[in-house]
Amino acid sequence: MLGMRRHVLLGFAMMVAMVVVPFVILVKYQDAQRRRFMKVAHAAQFVDVQSDLWLGYRSDVRQLYAPLVPAPTGYGTATLDFLYNWLRVYMMTDRLSLVRYSANDLRNAGFVAVDGEGAPLDAPDDLFLAIPEHQLDLSDGKREQFEKECRAVGAFWLPHAGE
User: Fold this and answer.
1) Alpha-carbon Rg of the chain, whole angstroms?
2) Could you tell me the CA-to-CA distances from 35 to 28, 31, 115 in Å, in that order?
3) Could you tell me the strand order of the sheet in which 127-130 lies?
4) CB atoms within 10 A of CB 95
5) CB 158, CB 130: distance < 8 Å
6) Whole-number average pLDDT of the chain
7) Distance (Å, rounded) from C-alpha 97 to C-alpha 133?
8) By the 8 A CB rule, do 72 and 25 touch?
9) How confident is the model at residue 130 (pLDDT cuts 50, 70, 90)?
10) Residue 156: in which H helix or E strand, if any?
11) What is the maximal distance between C-alpha atoms in the chain?
12) Are 158 and 66 in contact (CB under 8 A)?
């Protein structure tokens, strides 16, 4: 339209802006995400994962209050890097301890893991990484932000005994 009214230069500038501005915004967003979630390179070395076979049968599992991060295809160093970088702003120490549970472990401890629609997860080999709350500092309004981030990554809380 601008070209028809002899404003070719303005029309060309507007077309370039329609392509360049969203690209610049996307690059800035990706940089911010990289700074937040990949700040510490090789962060998996600071993560300890407990995978005791009898963990699901211990009575202290019912006392644990922790968000569970689903890892249905397993987890590797990239997953541990992401979790460490995500949680480092909430951690009280420089090491992160996670507890690995399978769906069977949770079922044996009296929990039924469900998906977002409330249907039980039937696959016995589905893995969950529990983040024990005692190593996180969720004071001063951090809890609300942490809850939002948990929902964003698909994590859900392991309920207290009796819930």
Assistant:
1) 22
2) 11, 6, 30
3) 47-50, 96-102, 127-130, 67-71, 156-157
4) 11
5) yes
6) 78
7) 10
8) no
9) confident
10) strand 156-157
11) 79
12) yes
Eight-state DSSP code of residue 154? T
Q: What is the C-alpha to C-alpha distance for residues 159 and 35, in angstroms, rounded to an integer?
A: 32
Backbone angles phi, psi at 69, to 5 degrees: -105, 115
Tokens of 141: 């309004």
Which residues does 155 contact at the CB level (< 8 Å), separation at least 6? 67, 68, 69, 70, 131
Higher pLDDT among residues 116 and 12, named by residue = 12
Angstrom distance (rounded) from CA 75 to CA 145: 25
Whose tokens are 């997953």? That residue is 79
* Strand spans (E) along 2-138: 47-50, 67-71, 96-102, 127-130
State the residue for tokens 């005994």. 161
Query: Do residues 2 and 8 touch, judged by C-beta distance below 8 A?
Result: yes
With beta carbons less than 8 A apart as the criterion, state whether 60 and 16 touch: no
Per-residue pLDDT, 141: 83
Q: Which residue's entry shows tokens 């460490």?
A: 84
The neighbour count for residue 81, using CB atoms within 10 Å, is 20
